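hey can u check if this looks right to u? its 371 residues, i copy pasted from the old doc so theres a chance i mangled smth
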Amino acid sequence: MRCGSSSTAKTDAAGAADRIIATENEALPELDESWLVPDAAAEPPLKKFAPDEMLTCAACLRANAPTRSQCMYCGAALNAAAPSEVETVTAEDANEPQFYVVVWAREGRPVDDSAVGQLATRFNLKPEELRAALINNGPLPLAATRSPESAAQTISELSDIAVATAAVPATVSKTEFVHVNIRALEFAGESVTAISKIGRQPLTTQLSDIQLIVTGRLLVHRVEVDERRSRSAVKSLDRRELSEDQSVVDIYLRRADAPWRIIVNDFDFSCLGERKSLTAFDNARALIELLKERTPTDVNESYTRVRPLLNAVWPLENTESQGRSRRPRAGRHDFSTVTASDNESQFNNYSRLVWYVKRDHQQPGGDSGSM
């Protein structure tokens, strides 16, 4: 049996050797190594940008990569900071006197295409956005200057264009002109009383003192990113986007610089009586119509039209904060970064500008969208 086993082992070894020799003599198939060579036509990997490099869309307030020309969410054009011949205001110049160069359509004289084209070229604006803003008769700040001489020079250069112009001091946007939030109005004869939200203090004035109503929308967009950080890497855990939208109504009185402000979704419309409807939007419109009937007020609703053009003078407010993540079961290495954009400061500035131009430059109006 041992002899038989030895013979069988020799036979198997010989057969294996034949197979090895046969394999060495055969041509091996060529390996496909094309995947090792980079594809020149392939798209490069996506580049990451820091939060302060992102462009904020003026229409929806969402952050976009600085390489984009249109918002990836709403399709609106993204306006990067374009160089201008007019001196621009920086943080270092905050304590220096500043003026805004403001234009608006003259009463009874619509702005023609030639004027729109000249202004668009002079201030690096899009003609269609500029035309939409001027049609609504709202004042439009086109530039900020550091001195009255610079403002006067810019206005002189615009003298041949068929628009009204003014140099408005930057004090119109001072933060001490804080609006008063009100929660209700009470009419009594020829007077009206506003109930403030803080302390519920009554503020009474004559209906004839109400001179201007400015409407707008306050937008807030937040991006929250949760990450897990270690010594060697940062792992993204979650990303959330939140948006808020509130309609507001500013009411300006004859002898006051700070307006009464109505937050439409947080206002008691009982003063409307039988005119009160089911929705806050309809009630806001009814209240404006009631005030137009009983007061000499003008109504300006141009903010939504001019908003894309205001970023050059009053950029959106962008903030960023970091802290421990508030996710359920978050670990001690989990952190959250919150980036927020809002237009409240921009609307405050524009609302006060409308009041200043009406009060000091006697701009006529009286219908919706005029002063």
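Residues 53-81 form one domain.
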